[in-house]
Design brief:
Immunoglobulin-like, four-stranded antiparallel sheet, 2 helices, three-stranded antiparallel sheet, 2 domains, alpha+beta, rod-shaped, 43% strand, 161 residues
Length: 161
């Protein structure tokens, strides 16, 4: 069987009907435009995550914290000699810092430190009587002060030796 290769076969009408004409246009984006859009979307998402992370860190950046670093209690006759070292672990100043010793319902002042700047350390020591503790008892050493959010406290227990 022979094929008809007449000029009619290659006419514009026949070519269009058989799909041999111009290439059909694709609906969609070409690769460079798609890559640019993808980069813009990824950058926007990274910025959003970064802003949210920095906001979360900012909540913790301005903190108020005081800590009793170390404390000792020694029984000397009728009094208990207490020595305590406190530190401001926060990022704001704490005013009116005082150190107390407690045993049961008895509370005695060890000393006043005053104002502690961020990162600052101070010591308070005193010989207290009437606490009611003896050798081997655990007493509570508490540091407290005032910050912008109210009273800040930290305590630790130490044995009387």
């Amino acid at each position: 069987m022979s094929r008809n290769t007449s000029p009619l076969l290659f006419s514009e009408v026949v070519r269009r009907k058989k799909g041999l004409g111009r290439r059909k246009s694709r609906m969609g984006l070409n690769q460079p435009v798609a890559a640019i859009i993808l980069v813009v979307i990824v950058t926007a998402l990274a910025l959003i995550v970064g802003v949210l992370t920095m906001a979360r860190i900012g909540v913790f950046a301005r903190s108020e914290s005081i800590r009793v670093l170390e404390a000792q209690a020694y029984l000397q006759g009728s009094c208990i000699y207490v020595n305590a070292k406190v530190k401001n672990d926060g990022s704001t100043a704490i005013t009116g810092v005082a150190v107390d010793a407690r045993f049961g319902n008895n509370i005695r002042a060890i000393g006043s430190v005053g104002t502690l700047q961020p990162g600052g350390e101070a010591s308070a020591s005193n010989c207290v009587t009437g606490l009611g503790a003896g050798r081997g008892d655990l007493i509570v050493i508490e540091a407290r002060g005032t910050g912008s959010s109210g009273t800040i406290r930290h305590s630790t227990s130490v044995p009387v030796v």
